C-alpha cells in the first residue's frame, strides 16, 4: 500500500490522556508481569528504529479540556507516575480522579509482559507503540494501527514501554 501521512496521523492521533471513565473489565491475558507499585514508562527502541528515541519517559502535555497528549522527556522530573489498576493503565497526577491512557478505543485491557506495556486490542488493530517528533516540540507517543501497511515518517521509531520503579 502507498504511504499516507494523513492516514497515519489520524490513526495515531487518537492517543491522549483523559480522566478515567469506568468501562467493563477485560479478561486478564496470559503471561503477564506484575509491574512495580508506581512506575515511569520508559521507551526502548525496537526493530532497528531511531535510537535517539531511546530512554525517554512518558509524561503529559496539557492540551485543554481535560485532554493531555502523551509526550516524552529525557528525565523523570515531570514524568507521569503510572500504576496498573486492574487492566487500566492509569497515572497519578494528584488530581481527583485517576487519569487513564485513552487510545480513542477503550481504556481497559492493559498489562505488562517481558516486552513491556501491552494493550489487549490486537484483533482490533493494536500493533505496538510509536514515538514521533510532533507538534509540541517534544517526541510524542502514538499507537500503531496494524491494518495499514504504511511507512512511518522518518522521525518515528517503534518502541516498547518498560516500567521503571518510581
Ligand atoms: C481504578 O479505576 C477505576 C475506573 O477508572 C476508578 O473508578 C478507581 O477509582 C481506580 N482506583 C484507583 C485506586 O485509582
Ligand atoms: C508480550 O505480549 C505481546 C502481545 O500479545 C506479544 O506480541 C509479545 O510476544 C509478548 N512478549 C513476550 C516476551 O512474551
From TrEMBL:
Pfam families: DUF7907. It comes from the Eukaryota. Keywords: Signal. Residues 37-94, 95-164 form the DUF7907 domain. Residues 1-20 form the signal peptide. Transmembrane segments: none annotated. The keyword Signal applies. This is DUF7907 domain-containing protein.
Amino acid at each position: 500500500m502507498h504511504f499516507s501521512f494523513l492516514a497515519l496521523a489520524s490513526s495515531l492521533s487518537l492517543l491522549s490522556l483523559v480522566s478515567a471513565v469506568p468501562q467493563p473489565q477485560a479478561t486478564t491475558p496470559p503471561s503477564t508481569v506484575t509491574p512495580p507499585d508506581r512506575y515511569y514508562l520508559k521507551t526502548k527502541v525496537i526493530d532497528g528504529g531511531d535510537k535517539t528515541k531511546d530512554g525517554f519517559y512518558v509524561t503529559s502535555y496539557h492540551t485543554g479540556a481535560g485532554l493531555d497528549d502523551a509526550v516524552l522527556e529525557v528525565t523523570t522530573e515531570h514524568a507521569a507516575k503510572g500504576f496498573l489498576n486492574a487492566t487500566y493503565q492509569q497515572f497519578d497526577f494528584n488530581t481527583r480522579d485517576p487519569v487513564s491512557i485513552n487510545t480513542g478505543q477503550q481504556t481497559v485491557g492493559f498489562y505488562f509482559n517481558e516486552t513491556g506495556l501491552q494493550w489487549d486490542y490486537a484483533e482490533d488493530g493494536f500493533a505496538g507503540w510509536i514515538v514521533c517528533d510532533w507538534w509540541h516540540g517534544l517526541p510524542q507517543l502514538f499507537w500503531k494501527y496494524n491494518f495499514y501497511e504504511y511507512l512511518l515518517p522518518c522521525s518515528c521509531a517503534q518502541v516498547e514501554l518498560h516500567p521503571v520503579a518510581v
